[in-house]
From TrEMBL, chain A:
Chain segments annotated as transmembrane: none
GO CC entries: cytosol; signal recognition particle, endoplasmic reticulum targeting
Name by which UniProt lists this protein: Signal recognition particle 9 kDa protein
Molecular function terms, GO-annotated: 7S RNA binding
Chain segments carrying region Disordered: 87-109
Location(s), subcellular: Cytoplasm
Family the entry assigns: Belongs to the SRP9 family.
Organism: Nelumbo nucifera
UniProtKB/TrEMBL annotation, chain B:
Signal peptide: none
Gene: LOC104605240
UniProt subunit comment: Heterodimer with SRP9; binds RNA as heterodimer. Component of a signal recognition particle (SRP) complex that consists of a 7SL RNA molecule of 300 nucleotides and six protein subunits: SRP72, SRP68, SRP54, SRP19, SRP14 and SRP9.
Keywords of the record: Cytoplasm, Ribonucleoprotein, RNA-binding, Signal recognition particle
GO-annotated molecular function: 7S RNA binding; endoplasmic reticulum signal peptide binding
The protein's name in its UniProt record: Signal recognition particle 14 kDa protein
Subcellular location, principal: cytoplasm
Region Disordered: start-end pairs: 131-161
Compositionally biased intervals (Basic residues): 131-140
Amino acid sequence: MVYISSWDEFAERSIQLFRADPQSVSCVLTSRYVMKYRHCDGKLVLKVTDNRECLKFKTDQAQDARKMEKLNNIFFTLMARGPDVDISEVSGKEQSEAQPTKKGRGRKQ
Amino acid sequence: MVGSLAQPTHLPPYFKLRKVSSKSAREREREPSLFAFAMVLLQPDPFLNELTSMYERTTERGSVWVTLKRSSMKSKAKRNKMTSAGETIEYRCLVRATDGKKTISTVLSAKDHLRFQASYATILKAHMSALKKRERRDKKKAGDGQTKQEDLKKPPKKSSS
């Protein structure tokens, strides 16, 4: 299991993993985002996988829970609306990411 | 309970009758029952209520898993039929939650998810209280009442004494 130590790296890679889900291949979407919380240990573990690659993040910090909430919003949007959705409108988090693959804002380069 | 049976009077006291299955309540709890493996599909609001009680139940021990996955909620045959007929398949967000024993789930469409994610965020914030809060600045007591550390951006200036 790959535990990623940087939150930003985990967030970016997990979003990429989600977006790259080969929907056209089998019409079955295999990526999922799992969150496990143990109150007795005070631990939070996040996992994003497409059953081939797996990214995990473990923490016991409250500030990471806040970051996770933002990531949750992104995932909800991605899942409900589709992987091509321009999520920079959801939060300012994705503005540093590379251009979205399909939906350009206007000009193609 | 042991003492609920009428004891035979003609036998010495050490031949006490006991019920065969004298399990404690805790052991009975652990027994796997068929219903434990049923996936309960709920509407978003009952799901949220049930999720809240799951978090409340697992404070002393246990974990809560929440899984988010995109799904059309249709079987493969139906999906293939729809694609060949030219109909677009509507995808929705499947949310599952479990405490190891009981599993609940709900399905969100695009219009449900905004409301759901707000309530969901509230629930998480309320219940994930066991995580550590980092005391970063001990020297700089900048601004009183700063219990939350939303230190993503630095404070613009030092607080005047």
